[in-house]
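From the methods appendix. Each design record in this collection lists the tokenized structure first, followed by the designed amino acid sequence. Records were kept in a plain field format so they could be parsed without special tools. The example shown here is representative of the layout used throughout.

RECORD:
FOLD TOKENS (183 positions):
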């Protein structure tokens, strides 16, 4: 991902954090405005700082998933109708992603990550995710799959498709969402 792309992704994520914090005391519209200002301000004012560079180094490659999830959350809070994720979908994702991460770390002797380098497996995975979105009516997952494939094809960032559509931060985020649904 280019420096501009990484900065834009960090601006979205910083703005999302500011939006979430402001949402405790302000209405969604005001929180979104404050989040947008904060996200742009952090990246523009502190572009060459150690903190912004460290955040990019820690979270990169951002891919399309993290910024898209942040923007989706803001849109939902602003009242934009978007399909949600069922609990069973989140549990299935958590189980599959745990297996994927275990394989990537060598705990499971299967190298699923290498499939993200090859055009045919990527095309099949994107088509499967698009079919899943068609069946469930949830257009968010196919959107991410296609945007990730587009970024992968044009060479914007990682040479592995999985880096565009997944991020290790999604594991704890999914756990937090599932725990929150218990209460």
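DESIGN:
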């Amino acid at each position: 991902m280019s420096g501009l792309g990484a900065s834009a992704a960090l601006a979205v994520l910083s703005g999302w954090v500011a939006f979430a914090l402001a949402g405790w005391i302000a209405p969604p519209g005001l929180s979104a405005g404050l989040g947008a200002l904060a996200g742009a301000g952090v990246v523009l004012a502190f572009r060459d700082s150690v903190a912004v560079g460290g955040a990019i180094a820690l979270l990169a490659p951002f891919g399309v998933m993290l910024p898209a999830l942040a923007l989706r959350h803001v849109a939902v809070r602003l009242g934009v109708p978007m399909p949600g994720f069922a609990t069973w979908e989140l549990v299935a994702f958590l189980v599959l992603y745990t297996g994927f991460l275990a394989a990537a770390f060598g705990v499971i002797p299967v190298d699923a990550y290498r499939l993200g380098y090859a055009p045919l497996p990527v095309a099949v995975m994107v088509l499967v995710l698009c079919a899943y979105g068609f069946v469930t009516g949830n257009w968010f997952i196919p959107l991410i799959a296609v945007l990730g494939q587009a970024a992968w094809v044009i060479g914007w960032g990682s040479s592995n498709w999985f880096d565009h559509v997944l991020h290790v931060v999604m594991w704890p985020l999914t756990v937090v969402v599932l725990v929150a649904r218990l209460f």
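APPENDIX NOTE: The radius of gyration is 17 Å.
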